[in-house]
Amino acid sequence: MAESYSSRLWESISDIYSAILAHPFITGLTDGTLPEQSFAFYVMQDALYLREYARALAAVASRAPTASAMRMFASHAAEAIAAELELHTTLLGELGISKEDAARAEPAPTNLAYTSYLLATVRGGSYAEGVGVVLPCYWIYSEVGKELLRLGSPDARYRRWIATYGAEEYGQVVAEVIAELDRVSLGLSAEENASVRRHFRTTSRYEWMFWQMGYAQESWPL
Ligand SMILES: Cc1ncc(CN)c(N)n1
């Protein structure tokens, strides 16, 4: 049987995925060496990221060609993100970060660059490009979550984070989006196919960069 569009897309980022699994943020979640401050910084930035990501999903929903795809992306914008934000609120409390401190945080350079790229693509590109650009956020976390679930963690907070993304329910959500990309891929021109692949690779790179941003507690130089 011919390999699916999505399988080939995943293979095209195998170098990035390997680099993600080897990143000290990720290895530190399972061996417990990730500094708490790096994790707290990441969680705070991710809460900001998810607000913009929800906007991106709502934009993809508004351009979906079928009612079922529109419902899927709209419900992810509302519900999947709400579940993740709830996890962040709990984690921030456990990390001793007040709501006021969290509200004062501004997006770090990588966060702003990633969300700006997402929003520009979903607003200016085709529906297929929109699906391709939002997919790494779903897919990479699900794969990382499953991998880390196998390895475990000595830290209860890190275990909770891992359990969210390694969960079967999260995997099912991701599988629906992958299936939608495979459906949409059937009607792509060569040019549009190249754009989808480019966007998918770019946001996969941003996923690596987002962990690096958290690890280094990246700040604006000026
Ligand atoms: C940056 C980022 N990428 C992906 C996810 C998982 N939805 C997330 N919470 N944050």
UniProtKB/TrEMBL annotation:
<dbReference type="InterPro" id="IPR027574">
    <property type="entry name" value="Thiaminase_II"/>
</dbReference>
<feature type="domain" description="Thiaminase-2/PQQC">
    <location>
        <begin position="11"/>
        <end position="215"/>
    </location>
</feature>
<dbReference type="Pfam" id="PF03070">
    <property type="entry name" value="TENA_THI-4"/>
</dbReference>
<protein>
    <recommendedName>
        <fullName>Aminopyrimidine aminohydrolase</fullName>
        <ecNumber>3.5.99.2</ecNumber>
    </recommendedName>
</protein>
<comment type="function">
    <text>Catalyzes an amino-pyrimidine hydrolysis reaction at the C5' of the pyrimidine moiety of thiamine compounds, a reaction that is part of a thiamine salvage pathway.</text>
</comment>
<dbReference type="GO" id="GO:0005829">
    <property type="term" value="C:cytosol"/>
</dbReference>
<dbReference type="InterPro" id="IPR004305">
    <property type="entry name" value="Thiaminase-2/PQQC"/>
</dbReference>
<keyword id="KW-0784">Thiamine biosynthesis</keyword>
<dbReference type="GO" id="GO:0009228">
    <property type="term" value="P:thiamine biosynthetic process"/>
</dbReference>
<dbReference type="InterPro" id="IPR016084">
    <property type="entry name" value="Haem_Oase-like_multi-hlx"/>
</dbReference>
<dbReference type="GO" id="GO:0009229">
    <property type="term" value="P:thiamine diphosphate biosynthetic process"/>
</dbReference>
<dbReference type="InterPro" id="IPR050967">
    <property type="entry name" value="Thiamine_Salvage_TenA"/>
</dbReference>
<keyword id="KW-0378">Hydrolase</keyword>
<dbReference type="GO" id="GO:0050334">
    <property type="term" value="F:thiaminase activity"/>
</dbReference>
<comment type="similarity">
    <text>Belongs to the TenA family.</text>
</comment>
<comment type="pathway">
    <text>Cofactor biosynthesis; thiamine diphosphate biosynthesis.</text>
</comment>
